[in-house]
Structure formats: structure tokens, C-alpha cells
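User: Please predict the structure of the protein below. I'd like the answer in C-alpha cell form so I can feed it into my own downstream comparison script.

Assistant: Understood. Taking the following sequence of 351 residues as input:
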Amino acid sequence: MANTLVVNTLANLGAIIINIYLLFKISDGFVGQGTFKAKQIAAAIACETVVGMLMMNFSYVVYETRFDLRFLLYAFSMKYLGWKVTVPTMVNLALGRFLFEVSKSSWLNLYLTFFLIVTLTFLHAWAKRRFTDKQELFLSITYLIAISFLFGFYLTGDIQKTTLIYIVYGILAYTLAFFLYSIVNDMQRILALVKIDDLTQLNNFRKFQDDRQRLDTTEVDLSIALIDIDHFKNYNDRYGHRAGDVILQEIARIFSTYCTASNPVYRIGGEEFAILIQGDAQAAAYLLEKIQKRIRYQEIILDAGDSVSITLSIGIAQRQKGELLQQTQERADQALYRAKRSGRDRVEVAG
């Protein structure tokens, strides 16, 4: 018993580690599960299903009852990929087992799966509002272990073997979860830093491209604002490049006070910024005019004690029906050019 349990458990652990790596590649680092593209969701479901089948193949079998670490797979999937991936995965695995292994255990596993789909989804939503990320993950693991233990004991009637199996599984599951949670969080932080501009701490051009492509798949009202600091080169030439850095940092700070997660701001060039705004061009113009006015009357103190005042030229375009955001950006760029040509320090909206 011991040798078989160890071999099958190690195979399950290996499958989960490989699964985490593949999903990290598929889902862009588990960042923003609510914004996964349909292709990412489909790929994640396929990956989870294959890994789950592999884990079942390496189950430890007692009285026709399969013991494996699928509960750990479900806990991580619900935490990092959400119910849109986890629920189809659980259904696929339950139906797959039922079709290829018609037994009392597979019948009951089918019923148990649907029970877990409902309860785990609600537990995850409840825990997300009340606990930290780590507590949420470990609560899901504990719940799944408890239900799996009761289910295993009911099917086998062997309390000694069932208890021993879940002592081993519990120790391994919590240990692996602790390390994988730390690794995933570290990788997410590294990935996030790659998309942050070092000087201003705003989102960078790479993040702008990623978000623009992601939002191409949505139908929400969106506007793009492109912003240039007027005569920025003159400040660099007169006061030095360190003065230019101070100006960019102060402008970024002001942008951050007006822009929220739904209206993210990006530094996309030397003195060029972009904002993705949920809403029509009128709402975008209202927001940008407030920012422009604030910056116009803001004195920026440079390191040498000099103070300067900055103005902005802004072009705005609202996404039209069936239009890619790259095309919207091009129209916003044309509006920005008109703002510069018309004397700068103004907002132009694309027709």
C-alpha cells in the first residue's frame, strides 16, 4: 500500500506543478481572471481536463474508490482561473470518469461533483470578500479535503485506510499549496513590474498594447485619450534632463489622482501619455479638461528651485461600432495633431 500510495501521490504532485507552469503561460500569469479571452478560457479548460485525467489515471484505488489530489487542482483553479474554467473542468472530469468507468463510485462521484460545483463556487465568492488571498485558497483546500474524506469513507467503509490516505494528502496538499502560492505570487509581481514604467510608476507601452488587445474583445463604450506635454524638449534643454524627469513624475502623480482602475493611464513615449476611458467622448473630454486645468495652474518645483508651469495637448476618440482600438488610437492621434496645430493647450475630439 505504502509504495503505491507514494508513487501515485508523486505523480499527482508532478502533474499539478506542470499544470501551474502551463496555465501561467496560457493565462498571461493569472493576471485579471475576469478579463481572460475566450481562447484563454478554452485552452485553460483543456489543460485542466487533461491534467485531471492524468491524476485520475494515477489514483490510489481502494475498494474501487479513487483517491488522488484533484481537490488541490480544483482549489487552485477556482482561486486563480475562476469558475468559468473550474466548473467546466469538474464536469468534464466527472463525465469522463463516468463514461469510461461505470461503477457505483463513478455514479456517486458524478453527484458529488455537481454538489461541489455549487458549494465551492459560493464558498469561493464568500471567502473572497472576507479573507486574504492565502486564507481563501487554504479554506477551499480544507473544505475539499473534508468533503473528499467523508465521500471516501462512505464508499470504502474503511476508516483506517481513508484516514491514513488523507493525512498524507493533507500534509502534502498544504505544503505544496504554501510553496506554489508563494511562487505564483512572486511570478505575478515580476510580470506586473515588467509592465510598469520605472520613472513614473504608470503603466507602460507594453501594458497599453496588452490592454488594448484585450479590450478589443469587449463591447463596452471606450474612448482613448492621447496626451503630449507641450514644448517638453524646451524644458530639457533649458533645465536639464533631471528637470524633465521631475516634470514627468509630477504629471504622472496628477494623472493618478484623477484616473481609476476603470480609466487606466499609461506612459507610452518620452512625454506621451494615453488614457483608456470607459465612456463616450463627452465623458472623456470632461475628465481630460479637469486634468488639463489642474496641470495648467500647477507650479512644478524643480531640484534647483526653479518653478515651471506645464500645458497639455490632448486628442480624444471614441471607439466606433466594429472598430479595433488600434484604429480608435489612430483617430485620437489625428485629433492630438489638430490640438497642436491649433495652438496647443487644448482638447480636440475626433469626429
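That's the full C-alpha cell string. The chain has a mean pLDDT of 87.
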